[in-house]
Design goal:
This protein has 13 helices and 11 strands. By secondary structure, it is α/β, with parallel strands linked by helices. It has 2 domains: 1-116, Indigoidine synthase fold; 125-303, Indigoidine synthase domain (Indigoidine synthase fold), CATH 3.40.1790. The structure holds pseudouridine-5'-monophosphate (PSU) and manganese (II) ion. Manganese (II) ion is lined by residues 136, 138, 261.
Length: 303
Amino acid sequence: MSTHVSEEVREALHEGRPVVALESTIIAHGLPRPRNLAVARELEALVRDEGAVPATVAVIDGTAHVGLDPARLDRIAEDPDVRKLGHRDLAPALAAGATGATTVSATAWLADSAGLRVFATGGLGGVHREWTRTQDESADLRLLSRVGITVVCAGVKSILDVPATLQRLETLGVTVLGYGTDMFPGFYLASSGEPVDWTVRTPEEVAGVMRARDALGGPTAALIVANPVAATDQLDPALHDRVLAQGLAAAEEKGITGQAVTPFLLEYLTVHTDGASLEANLAAVRGNVRLAARIATARGDAG
Ligand code: PSU
Ligand code: MN
C-alpha cells in the first residue's frame, strides 16, 4: 500500500516488538502552540520509556505516514496550514498532495492497515449534544466499528452527549472496558457518571481480552480501553460544568459547525479555565499513552 511505515516501526513489527500508534490531530488542532510540539515529543518518549516504539500517524505532502521522523513531527506541530483529516478525507488529501493531521478515525484506519494493534489518544469523538438538530456525530464511532484495533482513551470528550455516544458504541458493536473503574471516564473528569459493563485492572487482562477476540473471529470492531484521568489530576467538576455550558453557548452564537466544533470547544475550555482543562487533558493523554505501551508489551509477540 501507499502508506509509508517508518523503518523503526517496520522493524519492530517484523520482530514482534510492541508498537503504539499515536494520533496527530490532538497535536495540530487540540493543543495550543508552542506547547503542542513539546507534548508530541513527550508522548513519544513516554512510549519509549515503557520499552515500546511510538508510531505517530499523519499525512505529509500527500503521503500517509505511520511513524514520523523528528522533522515531520515538528511540521505537524508547527505548520499552521496542517488540515484535520478524518478517514473520509484521506483519499482527497493524498491525491492533492496535502498535509494533514489524522483524527482517531483516520489514525485507527492507517495504523490497523499497517498491522498495529494498540493506539492511544485523549478522548474519542462521539455524538454531539444537539444531535437531533445538527446530526453531528464524529466519524470516529463508525470507523471504530470496522477496525480491530485497541484504543486507549479517557472516554469520549465531555463536550459530547456521553450517554448517547455510549448507546451508539453499543449499537455499533464496539466493546468498552473500564480500566480500574466501573464508570465510563469523563475525559477531563475521572467519571462521566455513566456505568460500563466490563472492568479490567491490568495490562495483562486487556491483552487477554484481545487474545479472546482474535480467537473468536467474527465481525471486526475496535476494543475501547477507557482509562480515567487520576482524581487528583481531574478538572474541578463544578468549573467544568460551568465553563462547558458557556462554551457550548458561545459555539452556538458564533455559528461554529463541522470539524471546527471540537477544536473550538477544547480551546474555549483551556482559555476560560486558565489552563486547568489543558492540564487535565494532558494528564489523561499521558496516562493513556503509558497504558497503551504496557498493553502492547503485555501482548508479547502475539502478532
Ligand atoms: N483527544 C484529545 N484532543 C483532541 C482529539 C482527541 O485529547 O483534539 C481529537 C481526535 O483526533 C478526535 C477528534 O478524533 O478530536 C474528534 O473530532 P470530531 O469531533 O470533529 O470528529
Ligand atoms: Mn463532528
